[in-house]
Amino acid sequence: MTDRSPQEAHALPSRISLLIIGGGPAGLAAAVAAWDAGCHDLLIVERDDELGGILNQCIHNGFGLHRFKEELTGPEYAGRYIEMVRERGIPYLCSAMVLEINMRREVTLISPETGLSQIRAGAVILAMGCRERPRGALGTPGTRCAGIMTTGTAQRLTNLEGYLPGRRVVILGSGDIGLIMARRMTFEGAKVLACVEIMPYSSGLTRNVVQCLQDFNIPLMLNHTVIDIHGRERLEGVTIAAVNPDTRQPLPETAQRIDCDTLLLSVGLIPENELSRMAGVPLSPGTRGPIVDQSLATEVPGIFACGNVLHVHDLVDEVSEESARAGRAAVEWLARMKRPAAAAETVTVPVREGRGVRGLVPQYLQLTDRASFSPDETWPITFRPDDVYRGGVVLIRADGKLIQRRKTRIMTPGEMVVERLKAADLPAGPIRELTVEVEGVPQHA
Ligand SMILES: Cc1cc2nc3c(=O)[nH]c(=O)nc-3n(C[C@H](O)[C@H](O)[C@H](O)COP(=O)(O)OP(=O)(O)OC[C@H]3O[C@@H](n4cnc5c(N)ncnc54)[C@H](O)[C@@H]3O)c2cc1C
Q1: For the chain, domain boundaries
Q2: How many A from CA of 331 to the centre of ligand 1?
Protein backbone atom coordinates (compact mmCIF):
# COMPACT_ATOMS: atom_id res chain seq x y z
CA MET A 1 0.00 0.00 0.00
CA THR A 2 1.28 3.43 -0.86
CA ASP A 3 1.49 5.89 2.01
CA ARG A 4 -0.87 8.79 1.56
CA SER A 5 -1.69 11.73 3.77
CA PRO A 6 -5.01 13.55 3.48
CA GLN A 7 -3.09 16.64 2.41
CA GLU A 8 -1.15 14.87 -0.32
CA ALA A 9 -1.04 17.17 -3.30
CA HIS A 10 -1.92 16.20 -6.85
CA ALA A 11 -0.68 19.46 -8.32
CA LEU A 12 2.26 20.81 -6.37
CA PRO A 13 2.46 24.49 -5.43
CA SER A 14 5.13 26.52 -7.20
CA ARG A 15 6.30 27.97 -3.85
CA ILE A 16 6.55 26.47 -0.40
CA SER A 17 8.09 27.63 2.88
CA LEU A 18 9.96 24.42 3.73
CA LEU A 19 10.82 21.44 1.54
CA ILE A 20 12.33 18.33 3.15
CA ILE A 21 14.14 15.94 0.82
CA GLY A 22 13.96 12.39 2.20
CA GLY A 23 11.29 10.73 4.34
CA GLY A 24 13.59 8.57 6.47
CA PRO A 25 14.01 9.13 10.23
CA ALA A 26 15.90 12.40 9.60
CA GLY A 27 13.26 13.92 7.29
CA LEU A 28 10.41 12.78 9.54
CA ALA A 29 11.93 14.21 12.75
CA ALA A 30 12.81 17.46 10.99
CA ALA A 31 9.23 17.77 9.68
CA VAL A 32 7.62 17.10 13.07
CA ALA A 33 9.87 19.66 14.79
CA ALA A 34 9.30 22.27 12.07
CA TRP A 35 5.54 21.77 12.29
CA ASP A 36 5.59 22.05 16.08
CA ALA A 37 7.67 25.23 15.76
CA GLY A 38 4.86 26.79 13.71
CA CYS A 39 5.72 26.09 10.06
CA HIS A 40 2.69 24.42 8.45
CA ASP A 41 3.57 25.20 4.82
CA LEU A 42 5.93 22.29 4.24
CA LEU A 43 6.28 19.08 2.23
CA ILE A 44 8.32 15.89 2.68
CA VAL A 45 9.44 14.36 -0.63
CA GLU A 46 10.37 10.65 -0.52
CA ARG A 47 11.52 8.62 -3.52
CA ASP A 48 10.51 5.25 -2.05
CA ASP A 49 6.86 4.23 -2.07
CA GLU A 50 6.60 4.57 1.70
CA LEU A 51 8.04 6.73 4.48
CA GLY A 52 10.58 5.37 6.98
CA GLY A 53 13.81 5.21 4.99
CA ILE A 54 16.28 2.43 5.54
CA LEU A 55 14.71 1.52 8.89
CA ASN A 56 11.95 -0.36 7.05
CA GLN A 57 14.42 -3.14 6.28
CA CYS A 58 16.05 -3.19 9.76
CA ILE A 59 13.67 -5.66 11.44
CA HIS A 60 15.95 -6.43 14.39
CA ASN A 61 15.44 -4.67 17.72
CA GLY A 62 17.65 -2.21 19.58
CA PHE A 63 16.24 1.03 18.21
CA GLY A 64 14.76 3.78 20.37
CA LEU A 65 16.42 3.05 23.73
CA HIS A 66 17.36 6.73 24.11
CA ARG A 67 14.48 8.42 22.30
CA PHE A 68 11.56 6.29 23.54
CA LYS A 69 13.23 4.40 26.45
CA GLU A 70 12.02 1.21 24.77
CA GLU A 71 13.61 -1.40 22.58
CA LEU A 72 11.94 -1.19 19.17
CA THR A 73 12.57 -2.71 15.76
CA GLY A 74 13.51 -0.39 12.88
CA PRO A 75 9.98 -0.39 11.36
CA GLU A 76 8.46 0.21 14.81
CA TYR A 77 10.77 3.18 15.37
CA ALA A 78 9.96 4.61 11.94
CA GLY A 79 6.26 3.88 12.61
CA ARG A 80 6.32 6.13 15.70
CA TYR A 81 7.49 9.06 13.59
CA ILE A 82 5.15 8.27 10.69
CA GLU A 83 2.32 8.34 13.23
CA MET A 84 3.46 11.78 14.48
CA VAL A 85 3.52 13.03 10.87
CA ARG A 86 0.01 11.67 10.24
CA GLU A 87 -1.43 12.97 13.53
CA ARG A 88 -0.32 16.48 12.59
CA GLY A 89 -1.44 16.14 8.98
CA ILE A 90 2.03 16.99 7.68
CA PRO A 91 1.94 16.70 3.86
CA TYR A 92 4.25 14.23 2.17
CA LEU A 93 4.70 12.84 -1.30
CA CYS A 94 6.05 9.32 -1.77
CA SER A 95 7.39 7.76 -5.01
CA ALA A 96 8.73 11.23 -5.73
CA MET A 97 12.38 11.83 -6.51
CA VAL A 98 14.16 15.14 -6.30
CA LEU A 99 16.27 15.38 -9.43
CA GLU A 100 17.82 18.81 -9.12
CA ILE A 101 18.27 21.68 -6.72
CA ASN A 102 20.16 24.95 -7.05
CA MET A 103 21.49 27.63 -4.70
CA ARG A 104 18.27 29.60 -5.01
CA ARG A 105 16.44 26.59 -3.54
CA GLU A 106 14.61 25.86 -6.78
CA VAL A 107 13.88 22.16 -6.67
CA THR A 108 12.94 19.88 -9.59
CA LEU A 109 11.16 16.65 -8.72
CA ILE A 110 9.30 13.91 -10.51
CA SER A 111 6.56 11.52 -9.44
CA PRO A 112 3.84 9.48 -11.13
CA GLU A 113 1.20 11.54 -9.28
CA THR A 114 2.46 14.99 -10.11
CA GLY A 115 4.71 14.56 -13.13
CA LEU A 116 7.73 16.84 -13.42
CA SER A 117 7.42 19.82 -11.08
CA GLN A 118 9.48 22.79 -9.94
CA ILE A 119 9.10 24.26 -6.49
CA ARG A 120 10.79 27.34 -5.08
CA ALA A 121 11.36 26.68 -1.37
CA GLY A 122 11.96 29.30 1.33
CA ALA A 123 14.17 26.74 3.10
CA VAL A 124 15.31 23.22 2.27
CA ILE A 125 16.35 20.41 4.60
CA LEU A 126 18.61 17.80 3.01
CA ALA A 127 17.80 14.39 4.58
CA MET A 128 18.71 11.94 1.80
CA GLY A 129 20.59 9.44 3.98
CA CYS A 130 23.66 7.54 2.84
CA ARG A 131 24.64 4.67 0.59
CA GLU A 132 26.97 1.72 0.94
CA ARG A 133 30.46 1.64 -0.51
CA PRO A 134 30.36 -0.94 -3.34
CA ARG A 135 32.92 -3.56 -4.44
CA GLY A 136 34.31 -1.24 -7.13
CA ALA A 137 35.54 1.13 -4.42
CA LEU A 138 37.68 -1.65 -2.91
CA GLY A 139 39.54 -2.79 -6.00
CA THR A 140 39.51 -6.44 -4.84
CA PRO A 141 40.84 -8.63 -7.66
CA GLY A 142 38.99 -11.72 -8.95
CA THR A 143 36.04 -12.65 -11.12
CA ARG A 144 32.73 -10.77 -11.37
CA CYS A 145 30.54 -13.72 -10.40
CA ALA A 146 27.12 -13.68 -8.71
CA GLY A 147 26.97 -13.88 -4.92
CA ILE A 148 28.81 -10.65 -4.06
CA MET A 149 26.68 -7.83 -2.72
CA THR A 150 26.55 -5.15 -0.06
CA THR A 151 25.11 -6.12 3.31
CA GLY A 152 22.29 -3.59 2.79
CA THR A 153 21.23 -5.41 -0.37
CA ALA A 154 21.32 -8.73 1.48
CA GLN A 155 19.29 -7.15 4.30
CA ARG A 156 16.66 -5.96 1.84
CA LEU A 157 16.51 -9.35 0.06
CA THR A 158 16.19 -11.27 3.34
CA ASN A 159 13.93 -8.96 5.36
CA LEU A 160 11.68 -7.34 2.76
CA GLU A 161 11.66 -9.66 -0.23
CA GLY A 162 11.92 -13.05 1.44
CA TYR A 163 15.01 -14.42 -0.34
CA LEU A 164 18.05 -15.99 1.34
CA PRO A 165 21.04 -14.61 -0.61
CA GLY A 166 23.32 -17.60 0.17
CA ARG A 167 24.18 -20.52 2.47
CA ARG A 168 27.92 -20.22 3.14
CA VAL A 169 28.76 -16.61 3.82
CA VAL A 170 31.88 -14.52 4.36
CA ILE A 171 31.47 -10.90 5.43
CA LEU A 172 34.14 -8.35 4.49
CA GLY A 173 34.23 -5.42 6.89
CA SER A 174 32.73 -5.22 10.36
CA GLY A 175 30.40 -2.24 10.18
CA ASP A 176 27.14 -2.48 12.11
CA ILE A 177 25.07 -3.61 9.14
CA GLY A 178 27.56 -6.43 8.47
CA LEU A 179 27.47 -7.55 12.10
CA ILE A 180 23.68 -7.49 12.15
CA MET A 181 23.49 -9.44 8.90
CA ALA A 182 25.90 -12.08 10.27
CA ARG A 183 23.32 -12.85 12.95
CA ARG A 184 20.37 -12.50 10.58
CA MET A 185 21.81 -14.95 8.03
CA THR A 186 22.54 -17.39 10.88
CA PHE A 187 18.92 -17.16 12.07
CA GLU A 188 17.83 -17.98 8.52
CA GLY A 189 19.93 -21.17 8.44
CA ALA A 190 23.03 -19.93 6.58
CA LYS A 191 26.54 -20.63 7.90
CA VAL A 192 28.53 -17.44 8.41
CA LEU A 193 32.13 -18.57 8.18
CA ALA A 194 33.98 -15.37 9.10
CA CYS A 195 33.77 -11.65 9.41
CA VAL A 196 37.02 -10.29 7.94
CA GLU A 197 38.21 -6.83 9.03
CA ILE A 198 41.32 -5.07 7.71
CA MET A 199 41.65 -2.82 10.76
CA PRO A 200 42.80 -3.98 14.21
CA TYR A 201 39.34 -3.15 15.61
CA SER A 202 35.73 -3.55 14.51
CA SER A 203 34.11 -0.51 12.93
CA GLY A 204 30.77 -1.46 14.54
CA LEU A 205 29.29 -0.93 17.99
CA THR A 206 30.73 -3.17 20.73
CA ARG A 207 27.24 -4.38 21.61
CA ASN A 208 26.81 -5.63 18.03
CA VAL A 209 30.17 -7.46 18.08
CA VAL A 210 29.07 -9.29 21.22
CA GLN A 211 25.42 -9.95 20.33
CA CYS A 212 25.85 -10.71 16.61
CA LEU A 213 29.24 -12.47 16.37
CA GLN A 214 30.45 -13.72 19.75
CA ASP A 215 27.05 -15.09 20.80
CA PHE A 216 26.97 -17.20 17.60
CA ASN A 217 30.66 -18.23 17.57
CA ILE A 218 31.27 -16.36 14.30
CA PRO A 219 35.00 -15.56 14.08
CA LEU A 220 35.98 -11.89 13.74
CA MET A 221 39.31 -11.94 11.87
CA LEU A 222 40.92 -8.56 12.61
CA ASN A 223 43.94 -7.40 10.54
CA HIS A 224 42.72 -9.58 7.63
CA THR A 225 41.28 -8.88 4.19
CA VAL A 226 39.98 -10.65 1.08
CA ILE A 227 42.71 -10.81 -1.58
CA ASP A 228 41.04 -12.96 -4.26
CA ILE A 229 37.60 -14.02 -5.41
CA HIS A 230 36.95 -17.40 -7.09
CA GLY A 231 34.05 -18.61 -9.23
CA ARG A 232 32.75 -18.18 -12.78
CA GLU A 233 28.96 -17.92 -12.71
CA ARG A 234 28.51 -18.06 -8.92
CA LEU A 235 30.99 -17.34 -6.15
CA GLU A 236 32.84 -20.52 -5.08
CA GLY A 237 35.30 -19.14 -2.56
CA VAL A 238 37.49 -16.26 -1.42
CA THR A 239 41.14 -16.10 -0.43
CA ILE A 240 41.84 -14.12 2.70
CA ALA A 241 45.17 -13.03 4.17
CA ALA A 242 46.48 -11.22 7.21
CA VAL A 243 47.73 -7.67 6.63
CA ASN A 244 50.83 -5.94 7.89
CA PRO A 245 49.51 -3.89 10.84
CA ASP A 246 51.55 -0.84 9.80
CA THR A 247 51.10 -0.77 6.02
CA ARG A 248 47.76 -2.66 5.78
CA GLN A 249 49.30 -4.60 2.86
CA PRO A 250 48.37 -8.33 2.62
CA LEU A 251 50.97 -10.89 3.70
CA PRO A 252 50.83 -13.56 0.90
CA GLU A 253 52.36 -16.28 3.13
CA THR A 254 49.23 -16.14 5.34
CA ALA A 255 46.76 -16.64 2.45
CA GLN A 256 44.00 -19.20 2.98
CA ARG A 257 40.99 -20.13 0.88
CA ILE A 258 37.48 -20.24 2.33
CA ASP A 259 34.83 -22.02 0.23
CA CYS A 260 31.65 -19.94 0.22
CA ASP A 261 28.79 -18.95 -2.09
CA THR A 262 28.25 -15.42 -0.78
CA LEU A 263 30.50 -12.47 0.04
CA LEU A 264 28.78 -9.58 1.80
CA LEU A 265 30.48 -6.19 1.81
CA SER A 266 30.20 -4.05 4.92
CA VAL A 267 32.91 -1.57 4.10
CA GLY A 268 31.45 1.79 4.92
CA LEU A 269 28.67 4.22 4.23
CA ILE A 270 28.94 7.42 2.21
CA PRO A 271 26.54 10.37 2.55
CA GLU A 272 24.25 10.63 -0.48
CA ASN A 273 25.44 14.05 -1.59
CA GLU A 274 24.75 14.50 -5.31
CA LEU A 275 21.97 17.00 -4.55
CA SER A 276 24.11 18.82 -1.96
CA ARG A 277 26.82 19.29 -4.61
CA MET A 278 24.26 20.50 -7.17
CA ALA A 279 23.08 23.11 -4.68
CA GLY A 280 26.67 24.33 -4.30
CA VAL A 281 26.87 23.16 -0.67
CA PRO A 282 30.55 22.82 0.39
CA LEU A 283 31.34 19.34 1.73
CA SER A 284 33.72 18.35 4.50
CA PRO A 285 36.53 15.91 3.57
CA GLY A 286 36.22 14.48 7.10
CA THR A 287 32.53 13.53 7.04
CA ARG A 288 31.92 13.70 3.25
CA GLY A 289 28.71 15.51 4.20
CA PRO A 290 27.92 19.24 4.15
CA ILE A 291 29.89 21.69 6.26
CA VAL A 292 27.44 23.06 8.83
CA ASP A 293 27.23 25.35 11.85
CA GLN A 294 25.70 24.42 15.20
CA SER A 295 22.17 24.90 13.86
CA LEU A 296 22.87 22.46 10.98
CA ALA A 297 22.80 25.30 8.44
CA THR A 298 25.04 24.65 5.44
CA GLU A 299 27.07 27.44 3.87
CA VAL A 300 24.29 28.00 1.30
CA PRO A 301 21.67 30.29 2.89
CA GLY A 302 18.41 28.50 3.68
CA ILE A 303 19.74 24.97 3.12
CA PHE A 304 20.08 22.71 6.17
CA ALA A 305 21.30 19.11 6.46
CA CYS A 306 20.73 16.33 9.00
CA GLY A 307 20.91 12.58 9.50
CA ASN A 308 23.14 10.30 7.49
CA VAL A 309 23.47 12.75 4.61
CA LEU A 310 25.37 14.99 7.02
CA HIS A 311 27.52 12.33 8.69
CA VAL A 312 27.03 8.62 9.21
CA HIS A 313 25.39 7.88 12.57
CA ASP A 314 25.42 4.67 14.61
CA LEU A 315 22.11 5.22 16.39
CA VAL A 316 18.90 6.43 14.84
CA ASP A 317 18.00 8.10 18.17
CA GLU A 318 20.82 10.57 17.53
CA VAL A 319 19.57 11.10 13.97
CA SER A 320 16.15 12.07 15.35
CA GLU A 321 17.59 14.51 17.91
CA GLU A 322 19.85 16.16 15.34
CA SER A 323 17.11 16.40 12.72
CA ALA A 324 14.65 17.99 15.12
CA ARG A 325 17.25 20.73 15.65
CA ALA A 326 17.53 21.19 11.88
CA GLY A 327 13.72 21.47 11.62
CA ARG A 328 13.54 24.15 14.31
CA ALA A 329 16.54 26.01 12.88
CA ALA A 330 14.94 26.11 9.42
CA VAL A 331 11.79 27.65 10.91
CA GLU A 332 13.85 30.24 12.81
CA TRP A 333 15.69 31.06 9.57
CA LEU A 334 12.39 31.55 7.71
CA ALA A 335 11.21 33.88 10.48
CA ARG A 336 14.48 35.87 10.32
CA MET A 337 14.10 36.27 6.55
CA LYS A 338 10.74 37.96 7.12
CA ARG A 339 12.38 40.63 9.27
CA PRO A 340 15.93 40.99 7.90
CA ALA A 341 16.38 44.40 9.49
CA ALA A 342 16.44 42.72 12.89
CA ALA A 343 19.24 40.31 11.88
CA ALA A 344 22.07 40.62 14.39
CA GLU A 345 25.68 40.59 13.28
CA THR A 346 27.19 37.11 13.56
CA VAL A 347 30.77 36.00 14.02
CA THR A 348 31.98 32.75 12.44
CA VAL A 349 34.22 30.64 14.68
CA PRO A 350 35.80 27.54 13.07
CA VAL A 351 35.73 24.31 15.09
CA ARG A 352 38.85 22.34 14.23
CA GLU A 353 39.79 18.66 14.53
CA GLY A 354 42.69 18.32 16.94
CA ARG A 355 44.74 15.24 17.78
CA GLY A 356 42.80 11.96 17.61
CA VAL A 357 39.60 13.52 16.20
CA ARG A 358 37.98 12.66 12.84
CA GLY A 359 34.71 13.62 11.16
CA LEU A 360 33.87 16.57 13.41
CA VAL A 361 30.40 18.18 13.20
CA PRO A 362 29.70 21.13 13.27
CA GLN A 363 32.70 22.58 11.49
CA TYR A 364 31.98 26.10 12.68
CA LEU A 365 29.84 28.08 15.14
CA GLN A 366 27.85 31.15 14.24
CA LEU A 367 27.83 33.36 17.30
CA THR A 368 25.50 36.30 17.54
CA ASP A 369 24.93 38.35 20.65
CA ARG A 370 26.14 36.19 23.59
CA ALA A 371 23.40 37.60 25.80
CA SER A 372 20.86 35.82 23.58
CA PHE A 373 22.09 32.36 24.69
CA SER A 374 20.37 30.90 27.71
CA PRO A 375 22.90 29.86 30.40
CA ASP A 376 22.12 26.14 29.96
CA GLU A 377 22.14 26.09 26.15
CA THR A 378 24.34 23.32 24.79
CA TRP A 379 25.43 22.40 21.27
CA PRO A 380 26.28 18.79 20.38
CA ILE A 381 29.74 18.37 18.89
CA THR A 382 30.21 14.91 17.37
CA PHE A 383 33.26 13.06 16.06
CA ARG A 384 34.94 9.66 15.82
CA PRO A 385 38.28 8.96 17.50
CA ASP A 386 41.06 7.85 15.14
CA ASP A 387 41.81 4.73 17.24
CA VAL A 388 40.68 2.90 20.36
CA TYR A 389 41.35 4.92 23.55
CA ARG A 390 40.84 3.47 27.04
CA GLY A 391 40.39 6.17 29.66
CA GLY A 392 40.85 8.87 27.00
CA VAL A 393 39.92 12.48 27.72
CA VAL A 394 38.04 14.80 25.35
CA LEU A 395 39.30 18.38 25.49
CA ILE A 396 37.70 21.45 23.97
CA ARG A 397 39.84 24.59 23.76
CA ALA A 398 39.01 28.14 22.74
CA ASP A 399 42.12 29.79 21.25
CA GLY A 400 44.25 27.24 23.12
CA LYS A 401 42.57 27.79 26.50
CA LEU A 402 40.85 24.69 27.94
CA ILE A 403 37.09 25.29 28.34
CA GLN A 404 35.72 21.73 28.65
CA ARG A 405 37.21 18.39 29.68
CA ARG A 406 35.52 14.97 29.92
CA LYS A 407 37.08 11.65 30.84
CA THR A 408 35.73 8.61 29.01
CA ARG A 409 35.89 4.90 29.79
CA ILE A 410 36.51 3.76 26.22
CA MET A 411 36.28 5.42 22.80
CA THR A 412 36.40 3.46 19.53
CA PRO A 413 36.13 4.59 15.90
CA GLY A 414 32.94 2.48 15.62
CA GLU A 415 31.06 4.65 18.10
CA MET A 416 30.36 8.30 17.47
CA VAL A 417 31.31 10.53 20.41
CA VAL A 418 28.79 13.21 21.35
CA GLU A 419 30.15 16.13 23.38
CA ARG A 420 27.82 18.84 24.59
CA LEU A 421 29.48 22.23 24.37
CA LYS A 422 27.98 24.58 26.94
CA ALA A 423 27.41 28.07 25.55
CA ALA A 424 28.09 29.38 29.06
CA ASP A 425 31.62 27.91 28.92
CA LEU A 426 32.63 30.05 25.95
CA PRO A 427 34.94 32.84 27.10
CA ALA A 428 33.66 36.38 26.93
CA GLY A 429 35.19 38.46 24.15
CA PRO A 430 36.17 37.45 20.64
CA ILE A 431 37.18 33.84 19.86
CA ARG A 432 39.24 32.96 16.77
CA GLU A 433 38.78 29.17 16.87
CA LEU A 434 37.74 26.17 18.91
CA THR A 435 39.67 22.89 18.87
CA VAL A 436 38.48 19.45 19.91
CA GLU A 437 41.09 16.82 20.73
CA VAL A 438 41.53 13.44 22.36
CA GLU A 439 44.14 13.04 25.08
CA GLY A 440 45.28 9.48 25.75
CA VAL A 441 47.27 6.59 24.36
CA PRO A 442 45.92 5.16 21.10
CA GLN A 443 45.74 1.39 21.49
CA HIS A 444 47.15 0.62 18.02
CA ALA A 445 49.67 3.46 17.60
C1 LIG B 1 21.61 -0.61 4.47
C2 LIG B 1 21.58 0.10 5.78
C3 LIG B 1 21.21 -0.61 6.94
C4 LIG B 1 21.21 0.03 8.18
N5 LIG B 1 20.93 -0.69 9.28
C6 LIG B 1 20.94 -0.09 10.48
C7 LIG B 1 20.68 -0.82 11.66
O8 LIG B 1 20.45 -2.02 11.58
N9 LIG B 1 20.66 -0.17 12.85
C10 LIG B 1 20.90 1.19 12.93
O11 LIG B 1 20.85 1.79 14.05
N12 LIG B 1 21.17 1.89 11.85
C13 LIG B 1 21.21 1.28 10.63
N14 LIG B 1 21.51 1.99 9.54
C15 LIG B 1 21.77 3.41 9.76
C16 LIG B 1 20.46 4.14 9.50
O17 LIG B 1 20.50 4.47 8.13
C18 LIG B 1 20.27 5.45 10.25
O19 LIG B 1 20.20 5.23 11.62
C20 LIG B 1 19.02 6.21 9.81
O21 LIG B 1 18.14 5.42 9.06
C22 LIG B 1 19.41 7.41 9.03
O23 LIG B 1 18.26 8.15 8.75
P24 LIG B 1 18.23 9.11 7.50
O25 LIG B 1 16.85 9.62 7.42
O26 LIG B 1 19.36 10.05 7.58
O27 LIG B 1 18.53 8.14 6.26
P28 LIG B 1 17.64 7.05 5.53
O29 LIG B 1 16.96 6.17 6.49
O30 LIG B 1 18.55 6.40 4.55
O31 LIG B 1 16.54 7.91 4.75
C32 LIG B 1 16.86 8.73 3.66
C33 LIG B 1 15.65 8.78 2.76
O34 LIG B 1 15.87 9.75 1.73
C35 LIG B 1 15.30 9.26 0.53
N36 LIG B 1 15.94 9.93 -0.60
C37 LIG B 1 17.24 9.91 -0.95
N38 LIG B 1 17.46 10.64 -2.05
C39 LIG B 1 16.26 11.17 -2.41
C40 LIG B 1 15.84 12.01 -3.48
N41 LIG B 1 16.70 12.46 -4.39
N42 LIG B 1 14.53 12.33 -3.56
C43 LIG B 1 13.64 11.88 -2.62
N44 LIG B 1 14.00 11.07 -1.61
C45 LIG B 1 15.29 10.72 -1.48
C46 LIG B 1 15.61 7.76 0.60
O47 LIG B 1 14.74 7.02 -0.24
C48 LIG B 1 15.39 7.45 2.07
O49 LIG B 1 14.09 7.02 2.35
C50 LIG B 1 21.53 1.39 8.29
C51 LIG B 1 21.89 2.10 7.13
C52 LIG B 1 21.94 1.48 5.90
C53 LIG B 1 22.35 2.25 4.67
Answers
A1: 15-131+270-343, 134-267, 348-439
A2: 24
Residue 155 alpha carbon to ligand 1 centre in Å: 13
Span 95-105, pLDDT tens digits: 999 999 999 99
Determine if ligand 1 sits within 6 Å of the CB of residue 53.
Answer: yes
Q: Smallest Cα–Cα separation from 169: which of 159, 160, 178, 156?
A: 178
Cβ of residue 305 lying under 6 Å from some atom of ligand 1: no
Distance of CA 445 to the CA centre of its chain: 27
**Fold of the domain built from segment(s) 15-131+270-343:** FAD/NAD(P)-binding domain (3.50.50)
- Band of the pLDDT at 369, cuts 50, 70, 90? low
Pocket lining: 307 vs ligand 1, CB cutoff 6 Å? yes
Please state, rounded to an integer, the average pLDDT across all residues of the chain: 92
The alpha carbon of 76 and the centre of ligand 1 are apart by a number of angstroms equal to 15
Tell me the pLDDT tens digit for each residue of 167-222: 999 999 998 999 999 999 999 999 999 999 999 999 888 889 999 999 999 999 99
Q: What DSSP assignment string belongs to 223-283? A: TEEEEEEE-SSB--EEEEEEB-TTT--B-GGG-EEEE-SEEEE---EEE--HHHHHTT--B
Domain 134-267 class in CATH: alpha beta
pTM exceeds 0.85: yes
Residue 294 has pLDDT above 70, yes or no: yes
Q: Right CATH number for 348-439 from 1.10.10, 2.60.40, 3.30.450, 3.30.110? A: 2.60.40
CA distance 325 to 212: 33
Per-residue DSSP letter, 340: G
Specify whether the CB–CB gap between 445 and 388 falls below 8 A.
no
22 lines ligand 1 (CB under 6 A): yes
Beta carbon of 97 within 6 Å of any ligand 1 atom = yes
- Determine if ligand 1 sits within 6 Å of the CB of residue 93: no
